[in-house]
Amino acid sequence: MKFVASAAGRPRNSAFSIQHSAFLYDSPVQNRAVLDSVEFRDLVARRWRISLALTALLFILYYGYIILIATNRQLVSRPVSGATTTGILIAAGVIAGAWVLTAAYVVWANRHYDPAAAQLRARAEKR
Amino acid sequence: MQTSLGSPTLSAIVSFLVIVAATLVVTYWAARRTRSTREFYAAGRSIKPFQNGLALAGDYMSAASFLGIAGLVALRGYDGMIYATGWLVGWPALMFLIAEPLRNLGKFTFADVVAFRLRQVPVRIAAAFGGILTLIFYVLAQMVGAGNLITLMFGLRYEWAVIIVGGVMLAYVLFGGMIATTWVQIIKAILLLFGVTLLTLLVLAKFQFSPGQLYAAVAGRYGQAALEPGGLVSDPVDAISLGLALMFGLLGLPHILMRFYTVPDARAARSSVLYATGFIGYFYLIIPIVGFGASALVGREIIRKVDSGGNMAAPLVAELLGGTPFLGFIAAVAFATILAVVAGLTLAGASALSHDIFTHAIRKGHATEYEQIRVARLATVAFGLVAVVLGILFKGQNVAFMVGLAFAIAASGNFPALLLSIVWARFNTAGAVCSIVTGALLAVVLIVLSPTIWVDLLHHPAAIFPLRNPAIVSMPVGFLTGIIASLATREPEAEARFHDEKLRTYLGIGAE
Fold it and tell me: Three-class SS of residue B395?
């Protein structure tokens, strides 16, 4: 729906393809108000706190795995059952863990970020 | 074991022709929908998140991951698994740091984001330089790999293999633009995931569907060492450096970043990464089973005899378990894999040349839609021809390191500028240009001085730069030069615009 609407409203010629659309230069008063609002600043700060926390977990997961292999070969080589080593399970765990971290971000963003962003957007676009 | 690898079998030719015919039909359909630049570069922003997730997976999972990692696991055991995890971990980082701002700020290329509030001409030229350098090494590795693999599997002459790949891929991109490229990547991802799943099930069926029994068989034949870390992480600094390049290189790969403009908004971009991470994670989870299955059932000696790099491990185990018809299917899937990746690379290269260089650096943004599309198609042909010519020139050369080099350039040149432009108000034109040029060139220079080229290819006794992977040095240098050059110069306009840009970055107001 969104695509159809915006495609129809867009002029087919080209000068439009320049980066900066008009709103940057004559940004309406309510845009300023939203930019300076506590809610917007909090939302952006929270978004980066969560992103960076998840990035830190990803670092611990992956580089921790590499450092574990480099420093504690015995542990990684220890058989768990039969010939299967802990290393095989850990490698599978790193892959699964990477996906879980990604999913955690999506769940947070869908539940908390998007509704808050939609509210702020409505405030900014109200004319 | 008798193998029909290397001679064109009926099933291989039929599978191959079916795949090429199907993708060309898709291209014909896509060509009728490709009129504007929005459609040519971004598929009209109409791709669904699930579809884009598959297409991202198809754009990313190259023949090197499919055949290369299976071979690495088959010949070197557990080390192949360590390598496989490295190929996945960039995706969560891409989600956390780049995906949504990239979608909100940009239009067709990652240079759109870097140049958003900076001086267009210098930044566009620098970003196109970093992007094209990344793509050239990547496409060169793909082309040489394609020539070798197709020669091995179909017995076709190397030059013909490269020309066929170039020709079919050009047809997709030239006529069907991003719409055709997307669908070729989706078809390839489905075929690859289906083929590898089937292969995994056939392997496991030999071991009562118990991975434990498979590992026991591998250990019985090659010793417990096959299931333990070997030489890959003998130097942890080098291993971490490789990990950094693989993780953050993804965040600077132009052909991957470009796919985010094919979905309607940031939310869809976010969902596509989750789908892509799921598909790619699943793939790297099961591909080691194929590799272990090949070493247990086919045997390392035979795998090595067919191809010393182990690349034929997966096709050989496919032939053993599914006969010649299944081998033909897997060979055709490997071919489709190469085509889809090369098409994505070519489209990204064309967009850097036409959208960044022609439209914004030469024409200062004033080019008609008609001109832009024409130049985009010319750039497609140019990039495709360069890829074919380089592929033929580098016949017989060892190009395995070039994918690693492409990731190192992307991590050191493109990624720091992209991230800094999104998060740092003081980042400016001087910072962006210095960061991209220094990071990218330093990655290239350090690779040349590393054991990979200095010792292995140029046969000098000792390397000047000790690490095989430069990212642990070149990526921080990319960030530092960007920060220092920004702090040394002032660009008040860029700082002022950063403030306004935030509404678009975080709320999507005014996003394309």
Answer: coil
Q: Tell whether B29 lies on the interface with A, counting CB pairs under 8 A.
A: no
- B9's enclosing H/E stretch is none
Tell me the residue type at A65.
Answer: Y
Give the span between the Cα atoms of B110 and B255, in whole angstroms: 9
Q: A 82-121 residues with CB below 8 A of B?
A: 82-85, 87-88, 91-92, 94-96, 98-99, 101-103, 105-106, 109-110, 114, 117, 120-121
Task: Tell me the angle at which helices B415-423 and B120-154 cross, rounded to the nearest 10 degrees.
Answer: 140
Burial class (CB in 10 A: 0-12, 13-18, 19+), B384: buried
* Token couple for B40: 């040519």
CA of A35: which chain B residue's CA is closest? B503
Task: Point out the residue among B37, B224, B507 whose CB comes nearest to the CB of A117.
Answer: B507
Q: Helix B49-60 crosses helix B266-297 at what angle (to 10 degrees)?
A: 40
Give Rg (Cα) of chain B. Answer: 22
How many domains is chain B built from? 1
With an 8 Å Cβ cutoff, is A122 touching chain B? no
CB within 8 Å: B503 and A58: no
Are the beta carbons of B93 and A58 separated by less than 8 Å?
yes
- Taking the complete model, does pTM exceed 0.90, yes or no? yes
CA dihedral (A16, A18, A22, A23) positive or negative:
positive
**Would you say residue B450 lies in a domain?**
no
Q: How far apart are CA B253 and CA B130, in angstroms?
A: 10
CB contact set of B78 (below 8 Å; sequence gap of 6+): A85, A87, A88, A91, B226, B227, B228, B229, B230
Taking each helix axis as running N to C, give the angle between helix A38-71 and helix A29-36, from 0 to 180 degrees, rounded to the nearest 10: 50
Nearest to A62 among B100, B243, B284 (CB): B243
3-state secondary structure of B155: coil
For testing contact with chain B, the best of A16, A69, A100, A127 (most B CBs within 10 A): A69
Q: Is residue B69 part of a domain?
A: yes
User: Distance between CA B93 and CA B445 in Å, rounded?
Assistant: 26
Count interface pairs A-B at CB distance under 8 A: 208
CA B30 vs CA B35, B64, B170, B194: distances in Å: 10, 28, 14, 24
| Residue span of the structural domain in which B390 resides | 10-109+140-398
Read off the pLDDT of residues B133-191 as tens digits, 9 standing for 90 and up: 999 999 999 999 888 888 887 888 999 999 999 999 999 999 999 999 999 999 999 99
Contact between B242 and B469 under an 8 Å Cβ cutoff? The reply is yes
Domain residue ranges of chain A, discontinuous segments joined by +: 29-125
**Helix or strand holding residue B460 (H, E):** none
Residue B195 located in a structural domain: yes
> Could you report the per-residue pLDDT of B45-93, keeping only the tens digit for each?
999 999 999 999 999 998 878 889 999 999 999 999 999 999 999 999 9
Nearest CA to B170 out of B45, B363, B342 is that of: B342
What is the residue whose two structure tokens read 């995906």?
A: B99
Q: Does B40 touch chain A (CB under 8 A)?
A: no
Quickly count: other Cβ atoms within 10 Å of residue B136's Cβ. Answer: 19
The residues in A 10-29 lying below 8 A from B, measured between CB atoms, are: 10, 12-15, 17-21, 23-24, 27
